[in-house]
Amino acid sequence: YTLQQFIRALWPMLVIWVFKFDEVNKLYLALGTVAIIVLVGVVSYLKYLNFTFFLDEENIVLISNLNSGEILRFETSSGDYKNVFAAGLGGPTRMKMGADGYLYVLQWSGDGKVKRFDLNGDFIDDFTSVAVPKSIGLDWDQAGNLYISSYDGFIRKFSPTGEDMGFFINTNINGSTNIWFDAEGNLFVLDYNGAAVKKFDAEGNFKETFISSVPQCEGVDFLPNGNILLGVGGTSSVRMYSPDGTLISTVVPSGTLGLLRPNAVVLRNEITTSTSPASALFEERNIVNPSTGTYFHVTAPDQFVSNANLEVSNVSGTTVLRINLADSTYFDASALPDGVYVITLPMNKETIARQKIIVQH
Fold it and tell me: For a surface tag, which of 24, 81, 253, 257 has the fewest beta carbons within 10 Å of its beta carbon?
């Protein structure tokens, strides 16, 4: 559809090209043709650039709209539009909850700074002072440093207080979108134009191409067993990969339900444990501090059900530790092997908080 619109708009130029071909500077003609093709590709990409963030406790999903500069509220259960969460942004893209309980919002354009909002939509501050143009992916390392990816092909690092720490990666990527860290501190970068997921070490050095042949890759989320769900825009599909990057299957075939560009893949899990209501939903929350180590403290116990059980599960979903919040707001995980674990703690009858932690001796 976008291509058809451009052809209609540019048809007078095409007519001139047909009848005046011999009089046109061939170099300028070639460069102009390439520029038009690139422009069509960029506009086609931006046309479908929306991102989601779920507030399950409120039955609300937030959807950012790059073109309107707004973040909109919709009812999760019905999909009905509610109201505007935030406006006046420079092309909002990815949104993610920080450990401080604020929503971090990236901008494609505008001043390029990371904006923080509370969950009512009230603006808190500009977390960063240095612009990251076309910012579209973010994650934190174990020390709390923030990393922002730019579609221009680089990753910038900021301290836990938002101070600029310069480029973390500015080579070996050509169109970086989503990013994430693993338990060993390696950073994985989805390279939209490079058709690959690339792996870098904790110092920003390129290690390997982790997954290849994934043109226009962007959306990503993870199953409890560590499997990776990857949105592949070039094939309009979602694929599942094992934790080592091996392709398992295509879980959403090409074009299902009109799928075009899966730039966001989000799992919303219903609780199925015997101690939780079947209708309850997970909500990502900062339950304990620190998130890495062996000794953990529930930071705000009054936000949770007073006599609820805090459960610690391994990546296979097996509960390996259970602590009643009425007995203690601390727990010792030193008896567990090093690795990634998921802790859950009920907030109310409908919602259970969830957080990923790393046990590291």
Answer: 257
Across the strands, what pairs with 135? 150
**237-241 vs 247-252, strand pairing mode:** antiparallel
CA distance 284 to 302: 17
Q: How far is CA 350 from CA 235, 306, 346, 347, 354, in A?
A: 37, 15, 8, 8, 13
Q: Per-residue pLDDT tens for 292-304?
A: 889 999 988 888 9
HEC string of 280-299 equals: CEEEECCCEECCEECEEEEC
d(CA 184, CA 204): 13
Residue 276's SS3 state is coil
Please name the residue that has the structure tokens 């403290």: 297
Helix axes 26-47, 2-19, angle to 10 degrees: 170
- pLDDT of amino acid 42: 45
Residue 44 has pLDDT above 70, yes or no: no
Please, are residues 354 and 283 in contact by the beta-carbon 8 Å criterion? yes
